[in-house]
Design goal:
By secondary structure, the chain is an alpha+beta fold. It has a four-stranded antiparallel β-sheet with strand order 3-13-11-12, with no helix packed on it. A four-stranded antiparallel β-sheet has the order 7-8-9-10, with no helix packed on it. Strand 11 and strand 12 form a beta hairpin. It contains one helix and 13 strands; from the N terminus they run ββαβββββββββββ. The longest helix has 28 residues. The relative contact order is 0.14. Helices cover 14% and strands 33% of the residues. The chain folds into two domains: 30 residues; 123 residues, Rieske Iron-sulfur Protein (3-layer Sandwich).
Length: 195
Amino acid sequence: MATASVTKAKPDGLAKAGQSIQVSAPSRREFLYYIWGASIALILGQASAGLIWFALPRFKEGEFGGTFSFAGDAIPPAGEPPVNIPSGRFWLSNITDEGFVALYGVCTHLGCLPKWVETNSRFECPCHGSKYELNGKWIEGPAPRSLDRFKTKLTFDDGSTAETNENGDPIPLNGKKILNVAINTGARLKRNGQV
């Protein structure tokens, strides 16, 4: 075992200045205990940081799970085909006599991505054939319900605002000009067989 000679002055008066004290280096067993303990602490620290990062996600504006903001001219005219926003996984749909709705672009059957088929004027799922109207209402196929919707807030040119209700019903436009659209993709509204 190696020893080192250290000169220390103890403040309590036990050792006098200039007197040497023998300090031994840690044994091999002590050294391995220290390394093992440090490794466990490092692994636990990394696992804790990863768990916190996973459990508490921070969604930014403009990415799925966060809020998307658009100018009012992004909304298609009433009765026109819907507009797809792939980064947000939703469709902007303006239904004649109903209003505006943001439809979640994922089939309620097994999670495929329905596409708008212009010739049939409806959404059709390429995987198992579920079909949906422009407002997301289920027509036929194995899907158990209509397309889900996202919570939406519209700001009109007169300064007034309108939001989707808890059922996700379309927001009536009543001829008002839309300045801004805010769609919260973190607030999905399930339709449960409703229109």
